Amino acid sequence: MGPAGSGKSTYCATMAEHFKALNRRCYIVNLDPAAEDFKYPVTADVRDLIQLDDVMEDHELHFGPNGGLIFCMEYVIKNLTWLQENLEAGEDDYFIFDCPGQIELYNHLPVMRQLTEALQSWDFRVCGVFLVDSQFLGESSKFVSGVLSSLSCMINLEIPHISIMTKIDLLPKKSKKKIKEYLDPDMLSMAETMNHHSAKYNKLTEMICQLIDDYSMVRFLAFDQSDEDSINIVLQNIDMALQYGEDLEVQVKDFETDEQE
């Protein structure tokens, strides 16, 4: 999940290829009724249930893009049977849910929380992956905004949560160096670099940065689709959040049989 333009399509495509290389089963479910096309195979597509264009063209509803998307997701919640019927999972199967990018769905509306609660009731282990375009985080003030958005989603959904900076591979070298500072940020120093015209806003900024620094609840991981190590680190963190593999049976090799052969 992540804001519009966060690179979620590229993220899903890259992860699908990575799972294939690791010989791990991965299924991608499209939950974005406004999606247009995919660079990866989709196991289930919410557009078979409802599409944003159809909602916006309805002359009785009179919805724009934002209202229409909220209507679509609320419709999905009312028809969770459709989703459950399209999710046939084995014990070690791994699903990526490609969700809409409208931030309101995550930070104050109940829709996505209701969805995650439904998945958990179906014995899915769920981890929220919050994607932010690294090109958006070029300034300290924008970074703090990204942290607060991620924190808001984390609090609202109440599930294990991973925050990721995408499109690292598209940044120039100078910007990459700057972004690295945000992976382990000094929030207090960052607050000093943000200048405001009003002293009260300076104080507010300091308090926000202090809060982020004190609790360390949001830490971003860098996602570079051209760097296999970067992809592995992201997947390992998600696996740990999901406790993936803990219930799988240990594969024991029969050395005696091998020697006899």
From TrEMBL:
Gene Ontology molecular-function annotations: GTP binding; GTPase activity
CDD domains, alphabetized: GPN3
Annotated keywords: GTP-binding, Hydrolase, Nucleotide-binding
SUPFAM superfamilies: P-loop containing nucleoside triphosphate hydrolases
Superkingdom of this protein's organism: Eukaryota
Coiled coil: none
UniProt family annotation: Belongs to the GPN-loop GTPase family.
Entry function: Small GTPase required for proper nuclear import of RNA polymerase II and III (RNAPII and RNAPIII). May act at an RNAP assembly step prior to nuclear import. Small GTPase required for proper localization of RNA polymerase II (RNAPII). May act at an RNAP assembly step prior to nuclear import.
Subunit field text: Binds to RNA polymerase II (RNAPII).
This protein's name: GPN-loop GTPase 3
Name of the coding gene: Gpn3
